[in-house]
Amino acid sequence: MNKNVREARSTDVAEIMKVIDAAKRIMRQSGNMNQWGEGYPSEAVIISDMEKHGSFVIEDADRIVAYFAFLPSPEPTYSKIYNGKWINDTLPYHVIHRIASYPEAHGIFSTIMDFCFSHDSNIRIDTHKDNRIMQHNIEKHGFINCGIIYLANGDERIAYQKLNDKPMLHKKSFQELTNDELYELLRIRSEVFVVEQNCVYQDMDEDDKKSVHLWLTVADKIVALARVCPAGTHMKEISIGRVITTERCKGYGKQIMFHAIDTAKDHFGAKQIDIEAQKYAKGFYENLGFRQSSDIFMLDGIPHIKMSLNV
Fold first, then answer.
1. Which residue in 18, 103, 99 sits closest to 54, CA to CA?
2. What single-letter DSSP state applies at residue 141?
3. Closest CA to 190 of 178, 204, 170, 179
4. Rounded Cα gap, residues 124 and 162, in angstroms
5. Which of 10, 35, 66, 191 has the fewest CB atoms within 10 Å, i.e. the most exposed one?
6. Which backbone phi and psi does 161 adopt, to 5 degrees?
7. Positive or negative, the Cα torsion across 178, 179, 180, 186?
């Protein structure tokens, strides 16, 4: 099945309710007699999801075959958990609610997980104690049973959480960066290049405005970053710079460089990529295919070499 995930529209409500009715029938046939009773989830609930931009459908050949809600924290019913504790109760998270699909639609849960974890690495979900099918899918995908939560109406639910340690790539132009994203990237650059290396220099420059900025996050924490500058800005050729890993010896530096090289090729059409590498990092960049193309020179009081990669 060729599945497509998209945000739901108001014109989808009738089709979504058909999917929900089908999901209820599956619940009853599997012995789950109490979940989603008394008209829940209603059209009003679905519309509320839409208003929060957290309403999604899965299509196959332009036919809606599944529905789910994917909403940012906080989830009020998760403020208290009993008979256990959350894996992490400090980081922002997303919550998945109201998963429903037709019985003939296979691989839906995996599709939802792929979509959701491409947007957040910290996700919570809950389900009814009688929903064995959902419990199986949740646990098969690596979620941890954290305890019991209670809905606003007092109903009990088993609560799960998963922190995905696979780095997430973020890639934006300067104009696309949010204030918080820009602040965090500049804060880390200043922390490493100015404070840690005891080097007084102007980190922020006009090249930032023309560059593509990349960073990797694990559980919403930046673990590596870089920028790709077009030709004629920082260097004569297309270049990669401001490369930092905040957690060393985990391969994040190599990963961000691979993404930066791909961006230089795909976004700027690079045939050659240049870098100004600190001399101590020569071996790291040689392992990526870069070759020294200049003598040692001093830049902001630190020995550097120019290195180039033909792509």
1. 99
2. T
3. 204
4. 7
5. 10
6. -145, 150
7. positive
Tokens linked to 125:
């979900």
Q: Residue type for 275, please?
A: I
Rounded to 5 degrees, φ, ψ at 108 are: -65, -45
Spell out where 131-174 has E strands. 144-150, 156-163, 168-173
At residue 92, the 3 state secondary structure works out as coil
Distance CA(225)–CA(236), nearest Å, equals 22
Q: Nearest 5°: phi and psi at 131?
A: -90, 80
What residue has token string 């019991």? 148
Digitized pLDDT (tens) for each residue of the chain, 311 residues in all = 478 999 999 999 999 999 999 999 999 999 999 999 889 999 999 999 999 999 999 999 889 999 999 999 999 999 999 999 999 999 899 999 999 999 999 999 999 999 999 898 899 999 999 999 999 999 999 999 999 999 999 999 999 999 987 888 999 999 999 999 999 999 999 999 999 999 988 999 999 999 999 999 987 789 999 999 999 999 999 999 999 999 888 899 999 999 999 999 999 999 999 999 999 999 999 999 999 999 999 999 999 999 999 99
For residue 178 the two structure tokens come to 């949010």
The span from the CA of 252 to the CA of 255, in Å, is: 5
Residue position matching structure tokens 């934006």:
172
Residue appearing with tokens 């989603």: 36
Contact 242, 186 (CB under 8 A): no
Beta strands at 168-173 and 156-163: parallel, antiparallel or unpaired: unpaired
Q: What share of the chain is helix, strand, coil (3-state, %, to 5)?
A: 35, 30, 35
Nearest C-alpha neighbor of 215 from the set 229, 203, 233, 228: 228
Dist. CA 181–CA 213, nearest whole Å: 10
